[in-house]
Write a structure and sequence with these properties.
mainly beta, three-stranded antiparallel beta sheet, binds zinc ion
Length: about 55
C-alpha cells in the first residue's frame, strides 16, 4: 500500500526509508499515470503501476 508523505505529499512504497511521517493511501492520486510519475528510489523495484498494491 502506498504512503503519502505529510511533508511534501510525495508518494512512496510502504517500505520506503525516506518517507518519514506519512499516511497510508489505498489508491494512487489521479495525476499518477505511470511509474515514472513516482520519483522516489523506493519504486525502482516495480515495473508498472499494476504491480503496486
Ligand atoms: Zn520513497
Amino acid at each position: 500500500m502506498p504512503i503519502m508523505s505529510s511533508d511534501d505529499f510525495s508518494i512512496h512504497a510502504d517500505d520506503c526509508e525516506d518517507v518519514g511521517a506519512g499516511m497510508s493511501i489505498s489508491d494512487l492520486p489521479d495525476e499518477v499515470t505511470s511509474i515514472d510519475d513516482l520519483e522516489c528510489e523506493c519504486w525502482s523495484g516495480f515495473d508498472s503501476l499494476e504491480d503496486i498494491e
